[in-house]
Structures are given as structure tokens and as C-alpha cells.
């Protein structure tokens, strides 16, 4: 719970993959995206597709809801 809406904050979402090739198991970053929470707070929710930063063709679908008690 927060006292005030997080309108000045961002969520950092990073997408990673696990390689399962033996003998090494490495984690590779596929990209990331930063989402402004002011959009979530003002609209009550977001349901968007974002292009991943540092990725060739990567996209991520994100749905976030903001509700008050």
C-alpha cells in the first residue's frame, strides 16, 4: 500500500531467456522496457504492447491495473 499515487515512478521490466544447452546454463537478456506509472494511475490501467529496448524484434504485452481502496 502507498500513501500517494506513484506518478513520478517507472517500472523497469527486463525479459530474459534461459539457455539449456549442456554443460552451461546461461541467462541471456532479450531486452527491457521502462513504463511510466503516471499513465497507469491516470487511466486506471494500461494494456499495451511495447518494443523491447536493446532487442532486434522483441515486443512484450503488458497489462497493469491501478485501483484505490
Report on this model:
The chain is mainly β and 69 residues long. The protein has one domain (10-65). It contains one helix and four strands, in the order E-E-H-E-E. It has one helix spanning 37-43; strands at 10-18, 27-36, 45-51, 59-65. The strands form two sheets. A two-stranded antiparallel ribbon has the order 1-2. It has a two-stranded antiparallel ribbon with strand order 3-4. Strand 1 (10-18) and strand 2 form a beta hairpin. The protein is elongated. The model has no long low-confidence stretch (mean pLDDT 88).
Strand line-up in the sheet with most strands: 1-2
The largest sheet is:
2 strands, antiparallel
Overall spatial form: elongated
- In percent terms, what proportion of residues is strand? over 45%
Total of helices: 1
Along the chain, the helix and strand elements come as EEHEE
Overall residue-averaged pLDDT value: 88
Helix content: 10-25%
Distance between the termini: 9 Å
What is the count of β-strands? 4
- Alpha-carbon Rg, integer: 16 Å
Secondary structural class:
mainly beta
| Count of separate structural domains | 1
Low-confidence stretches: none
Amino acid at each position: 500500500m502507498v500513501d500517494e499515487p506513484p506518478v513520478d515512478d517507472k517500472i523497469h521490466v527486463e525479459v530474459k531467456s534461459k539457455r539449456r544447452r549442456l554443460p552451461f546454463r546461461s541467462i541471456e537478456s532479450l531486452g527491457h522496457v521502462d513504463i511510466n506509472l503516471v499513465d497507469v494511475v491516470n487511466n486506471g490501467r494500461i494494456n499495451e504492447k511495447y518494443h523491447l529496448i536493446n532487442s532486434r524484434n522483441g515486443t512484450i504485452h503488458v497489462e497493469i491495473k491501478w485501483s484505490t481502496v
